[in-house]
Amino acid sequence: MDLRSVFAPRLVAHAHCDIPCGIYDPSAATIAAQTVAKMVEKITGSTGTDEASRNLFIRSVAVKEEHAQICKKELLILWSDYFKPEHLEKYPKLHDTFWKAAKLCSKNKQSVDAKAAADLQAAVKEIADIFWATKK
Amino acid sequence: MRPATLLFRVAVAGRSMEPTFRDGDWLLVRSVERPPRPGEVVVARDPRRPERLIVKRVHDVADGRVTVQGDHPDPAESTDSRQYGPIPAEAIVGRPVLRYAPLRRFGLVR
Fold first, then answer.
1. Would residue B1 count as lying in a domain?
2. Domain of A71?
3. Residue B46: CB partners within 8 Å, gap ≥ 6?
4. Which residues of chain A have a CB within 8 Å of the CB of B87?
């Protein structure tokens, strides 16, 4: 007879944080960063001066602003709520990575800069990669 | 759910009681025989789902209402009285007395 099964408890006592970890997901930040890049493209490529073009231009700027903010908010949720001290031990540059990514969100609000948009996408991807690595 | 026996065993699931208990620790639990005291660890029925057992530390006892909290230093790691308020003293089913597995963590529960 297996000793383990003799001594194994039949009851479970839960010592949990009940918030299902599944609700954390870097996808929202990733999509927001992609949207910012797409809007930078639209703004840069917009040359028309007619009303429809100006409308599209202004909408693109507004959406860029909005999604840069969404990206920042989603990153903050991951940073403050999902990541734990033991993750930091394993990824010592985590704080720096988040800080730089948040700064890039701001930079994308302030400017129309394809490089800043690409940098933001790369920074979010780096965070997403770390996130998924902690899920393994 | 309260076992009639004097002693029963539970397996800890989750990390809210770290460093006292880790996920997967096996505990010998003494069935409740007196009112809880602040500072001791208890096994209780989850106030939101009575079929489920929880293990937490008693922080305060007042008028039959027991405030329980996880030991984990990060409050985000524990769901306890800070979210669901104090639990009734009757919800407590026992006190862990011995951590018997893994063997390298064998010891009395404090």
1. no
2. 25-134
3. A14, B52, B53, B54
4. none
Subunit contact B46:A84, Cβ cutoff 8 A: no
Domain count, chain A: 1
Contacts of A23 in chain B (CB under 8 A): none
- Find the CATH number of the domain harbouring A101: 1.20.120.400
Per-residue model confidence as pLDDT tens digits over B35-67 = 999 999 999 999 888 888 999 999 999 998 999
- The tokens for A127 are 């965070």
Q: Are B39 and B50 in contact (CB under 8 A)?
A: no
Read off the pLDDT of residues A61-84 as tens digits, 9 standing for 90 and up. 999 999 999 999 999 989 988 888
Nearest to A83 by CA among B18, B16, A92, B72: A92
Instruction: Tell me whether residue B95 is in a domain.
Output: yes
Please judge whether B53 and A15 are an interchain contact, meaning their C-beta atoms are less than 8 angstroms apart: no
Residue B9: phi and psi, rounded to 5, are: -115, 145
